[in-house]
Design a protein that fits this description.
alpha+beta, 3-stranded antiparallel beta sheet, two-stranded antiparallel ribbon, 4 helices, 5 strands
Length: 119
């Protein structure tokens, strides 16, 4: 079975949080995601893309599980391709994710395709 999720967010919204309340914003990211973002030319752009990816995963996975933002980690392959890591999932089910993140000056967007794998 396959499901899809998509999310789009304003980069300016995340920039305001980053400027004014970084400690609150930081609670929603894994240390690896935060550190990766802070190395980029536009940390807010990268954080927004990661946020969108997490939201897209929540939407795609809603058929299978209820997830929180803090259950989802977005990492990168050596090639730079984003990958999804689920934490705190009390299940032996396997999922395969295809994730794409993109952004422009004002918005970031992510979509994810999740396939349930029978084992």
């Amino acid at each position: 079975m396959t499901h899809i999720g998509v999310d789009i967010e304003s980069i300016q919204r995340v920039q305001k949080l980053l400027d004014n309340k970084p400690q609150i914003l930081k609670k929603f990211y894994f240390e690896s995601e935060w550190n990766y973002s802070m190395l980029k030319a536009s940390p807010a752009q990268t954080l927004t893309g990661i946020w969108c990816a997490k939201e897209a995963v929540i939407k795609a996975m809603s058929y299978y599980h209820t997830l929180k933002i803090q259950d989802i980690e977005i990492e990168r392959e050596k090639s730079g391709m984003p990958i999804v890591i689920l934490h705190n999932l009390q299940s032996i089910q396997c999922f395969h994710f295809s994730l794409s993140i993109s952004h422009c000056k004002e918005y970031a967007v992510a979509n994810v395709l999740v396939n349930f794998i029978n084992i």
